[in-house]
Amino acid sequence: MNKILFNEKLYIQAGLLILILSASFIIPILFLPTLVIFFLYLIIVINDFLNLKSINLPPISVQVSMFPVIREIQTLSIEFNLEDNINISDYQFDLILDSIPGIQTNQEGLFHSIYLNEEIFIQIEYSCPSLGFYQIKHLTFIVHSKYKYWFQVVKLNCSPQDFRVLPSNQVVKEKELSKLLKGQKIYSQTDRRVNFNSLTDHYYCSREFVPGDNLRYVDFKKFAKFKRLYTKTYETHLKYHHLILMDLGRGMEGTIEESHKVDYFLPVISNLIRLSLEKGDEVSFIAFSQNIDLAIIKGTGHHDFLPLFRNDPRLKPKLEESNYHNLVSFLSNQNFQRSLLYLYGDLTRPATQTYCHTIFRPVIYRHRSLFINLQNSHYNLEKNVLNNPINSLSDYSNLIYDYWMEKNLRKFSLEINSLGGSFVNVPTDYWMSANTKIYNLFRISFNV
């Protein structure tokens, strides 16, 4: 049987009326009006209770929309039958996700209701407290009475359903992207610059025409010169090998804007793997700390990378220093072809920077290498100087830290560039969008 409980405001209002009624004994002229108001209030409260009690809630099923879960929003759909002719305008509904502490509705009590075949579909938007994986197990469905003096509580059980909250998908502007890539070799191929305003097919070379080639790719300039048919090939037609490395050492411990660092990196890496597989490329993923925690070599389908799309314990940060000697040895044993290499991790740590431009040097020479760091947008020197007034000693301390961090990363970027690699420091504001564009630029700039 469902419980019916009273709201706290019933205590307050009833107590206040009783207090006024008691005071009216001193002033006889106020006694009768106060008594009438009190009995009217009592009738409203009792009627409100009886109306709520008369509701016979039908079975309620909960459906969770799993994809996509972006900008920390998750939409739930509650579906139930209207056999008892519940007038939705007379009641307010709440759904509490007991298994997810800290989750909140974006618009309290406001639902998107759709009537279809005598059923109501209610959609509720929730803000999750942080990024990462969540599981819905138990739910509490609450029906408030018309005047909200009473509410009925229904405990719901549903089969465990997992979902993932992704970082913001805010689009990076051209100006910001140019600033991120300034001084890097990421969008140049030999002596030719790639136009990053057009991330479509880029000409690679021409080869002799083979029966079956698409006539739209015939190179007429070559035909006019050599009197033979040639076919243009484009870089998006080539099959590449992407080697994605993720540092799970102690640098990945801690949080950024209340979310664990690893919960920023995993969605980006998952997205890059998806893009690569759609283009027909091969992908290898290696997560490492003191040891190789997870290695997926030359995967060609989404099924090969299921651990990245689930809450796999092997992809948790470790409280230990990462062993780059071990990583380099593992890569040399695999004997990979020249590949597009991505290294994700906390590259602000001096120890990690030293490992990258010393121990990791042979790997940078062999592969086209890109080092990607996640920057907390709160520690942006330019933004803080322009937008935030300096009013206290802590503001000066933050600016000094921002200046040191920017100088340190600029020095690291120069060291990586001198070895032939590229370094990008991407803010959390447009982390997902910028990584996708950088990936496209990096791929079309690769010359095997």
- Radius of gyration, rounded? 31 Å
Total strands: 21
- Total separate domains: 3
User: Helical content, roughly?
Assistant: 25-40%
Any idea what the shape is? Answer: elongated
**Main beta sheet:** 6 strands, mixed
Put simply, the count of helices is 11
Mean pLDDT: 76
Tell me what the CATH architecture of the largest domain is. 3-Layer(aba) Sandwich
Strand content: 25-35%
Judged by helices, strands and strand pairing, the structural class is alpha+beta
Spatial separation of the terminal alpha carbons? 70 Å
CATH class of the largest domain equals Alpha Beta
Name of the CATH homologous superfamily of the largest domain: von Willebrand factor, type A domain
Do you know the CATH topology of the largest domain?
Rossmann fold
What ranges have pLDDT less than 50 throughout 5 or more consecutive residues?
65-89, 106-120, 188-200
Give, in spatial order, the strands making up the sheet with the most strands.
Answer: 18-17-14-19-20-21
What does this structure look like?
The protein is of the alpha+beta class. It folds into three domains: 1-166, no CATH class; 174-199 and 239-444, Rossmann fold (3-Layer(aba) Sandwich); 210-237, no CATH class. Helices cover 32% and strands 29% of the residues. It has helices at 8-23, 28-53, 174-180, 220-226, 262-278, 324-334, 350-357, 361-366, 381-387, 393-418, 431-444; strands at 3-6, 60-64, 73-81, 92-97, 104-105, 112-116, 119-127, 132-144, 150-165, 188-189, 192-193, 203-208, 230-234, 241-247, 255-256, 259-260, 282-288, 292-299, 340-344, 368-375, 422-427. The strands form six sheets. The protein has a six-stranded mixed beta sheet, sandwiched between helices. Strands 2, 3, 5, 6 and 7 form a five-stranded antiparallel beta sheet that branches. Strands 1-9-8-4 form a four-stranded antiparallel beta sheet. A hairpin with a 5-residue loop joins strand 8 (132-144) and strand 9 (150-165). Helix 1 runs antiparallel to helix 2 (28-53), helix 5 runs parallel beside helix 11 (431-444) and helix 7 (350-357) runs parallel beside helix 10. It is elongated and about 110 Å long. 23% of the residues are buried.
